[in-house]
Predict the 3D structure of the following.
Amino acid sequence: MPAPRTTPTRKVLGRLSLPERTFVTDALRTETVGGVLLLAAAVTALIWANVPALHDSYESVSHFHFGPETLGLHLSVAHWAADGLLAIFFFVAGIELKRELVAGDLKDPKAAALPVVAALCGMAVPALVYILTNVTGGGSLTGWAVPTATDIAFALAVLAVIGTSLPSALRAFLLTLAVVDDLFAILIIAVFFTSDLDFAALGGAFVGLAVFWLLLSKGVRGWYVYVPLALVIWGLMYNSGVHATIAGVAMGLMLRCTRHEGEAHSPGEHIEHLVRPLSAGLAVPLFALFSAGVAVSGDSLGEVFTQPETLGVVLGLVVGKALGIFGGTWLAARFTRASLSEDLVWPDVFAVASLAGIGFTVSLLIGELAFEDDPALTDGVKAAVLTGSLIAAVLATVLLKLRNAKYQALWAAEERDDDHDGIPDIYEQDNPAYHLRMAELYERKAAEHRRLAEVAGGAGGRGDGPA
C-alpha cells in the first residue's frame, strides 16, 4: 500500500529567497539612513519649538506663505511639507506596493495572507483601543485613525541606534507590514479626510493621470515630460479637495515593476532607486521638522495621559499595535496551518510588533487632518504620537536586546561567504558545485597547513628554532 503523501508545512518568517533578500537589504539600507535623518529632524524641531529664544522663529518659518495664489497654492511652509513633500513619500510607497503585488511577497495569495492579516489587525486593534478609550472618557472619536500607522523609517532608525542584528526575515516582515499599512492609511486619508469636492479639478486630475499612464504604456521617457505633468496632477488633486498625496500614490502604482527580457531593472525599480533618497533624505525629514515642533512641558506631557483623545493615541500605538500585529500573525499561522521558522520564537514576533508601534510620519499627518479645526488638540495629539512612539521604541529595544545574541548568530550565518563568490553560503547548501568548491578550498587550506608544518619542522631539525 503506497504511503500517503504529506504536504510540506509552510514556514512563517522563514528564510527569504536570495533576490528578495537582496532587494530588502538595499531598500532597508536607504530607509535606515532616512530614519536617522528623520530622528534628527524631529529632535531639531522639538528644540527649535521649545527654546524660548527660538520659538518665535519656528512659528514664523512654519507659517510663512508662498506660492501662486491664483492657482490656489499660496500655502504655508508647513502645509507645503505636508501636502507637497509627502506626495514624494507616497509616490515611493505606491511603487513599493506595486512591486510587492507583482513581484514580492504579496504576489502569492498564500504568502500574502500573513502580512496582510497582521497589518489589518495592526490597524484595527489600535483604532478599537482609541475608540474604547474615548467612549469611556467622553472624548472625540475623530482621531480614531491616528494610531493605525507604522513609520518604517523611524523603526529602522531605532534598530540602527540600538545596534541589533535583526534577521532579514523579520526585517522583511516589518517592511511588508509597513507597505500594507501605507496602503490602508492612503485609503483612510482618501475616504475619511476628503473635504468638499471640486469635481472640475478632480476630473482634471484624472485626465492627467490617464495621460501619465498612456505615456508610460507607450514607453515615452524623459524626466522633463513626467515631472511637469506630475506637478500639474498634484496641483489639480490638491484643489479637488482630495488629499494631494493621493496623486503620488496613483502615479507610483502605474509604474511597471516587472522586468522584460534583457532588463537589469524594471522602470519602477529604477525610478524608486532614484527617488527613494529624495523621499527618505529630504521630503520626510522636512515634514518632521515642521510637524514635530510642539511645545513640551511637564503639564503638556501630563495632559497626554489625562485627555481621552491623546491617551487613546498613546495606548493605540503602544498596546494596540503590539497586540494587533502579534494576534493577527498568530491567527494567520494558526488557520493556514503554518509553523514558525525554527530559528525564531513567538516573542520575536511580539518584539517586532512592538517596534511597529512607532507611528510617526503618517500618524502626525492624520492627526493634523483629524483635528485641523482645533490647534490645541492638534498639538496635543502630536505630543501623544511622539510619546507613544517613544514608549514603543523603548519597549521594543528591551525585548529585542534580550534576544540580540541569537539574532547576531542568525545574521552571521546569513552573511557567511566562505568561498567568496558573492552569494551567502546558506543559499548554496543544496548545490553540488558549492560543496565541490568548499572541498577544494579546505584541501588547499590543509595543504598550506602541512607545508607550514614541514617548514617549521625542518627549521627545528637544523637547530634554527628556539631552544
The domain at 11-193+243-415 is CATH 1.20.1530.10 (Na+/H+ antiporter like fold). The chain has two domains: 11-193+243-415, 425-461.
